Here is the input.
Amino acid sequence: MSKSHWDSVYGRKAADAVNWYAPHLAESPGYIQRSDVGKAASIIDVGGGESTLVDDLSQCRLHGVTVVNRCGALWADLHHPERSQFSVAEMLEHELPQLMPMPEPFDGYVKTPARVSSTCLVSVARNRYSVPCELAGHIVSARLNPSRVVIVADDQVMAEHEWLTSEEL
Here is the structure.
């Protein structure tokens, strides 16, 4: 469904007139509380619309909730939870110049030392990965990314492999 479709639906009907509306979500706040994410957790409600999840979680003292909504037109009518004299759209317009720019994405990894076996294999996270034969017997650095394993020796990438989980073997 397109943005224009949803803007049209919300333009024709009141928020509580659509069949998916609920004045309060029955289960979501309980799931979030039982997950023990902590009071300072960042929670994103994607496609929230007129959802009361933000309000319900504020009652539970969880304040790091953000609503990402495809229907930006609703922001003009939605009162800001902390400054009710302003709409969410007005507060966003006011705050945008003060926000920091998004940083460039970075390649995060977990670094662990590993010894190369005589058969030129490195054991990392219960799997074995091949490396060049000249590294046999040496200590190398294994960099674990979410999707790959990078083997580094003397600050040079020597091998790179897809990180296989036990379910993928």
About this structure: The longest helix spans residues 3-12. The radius of gyration is 25 Å.
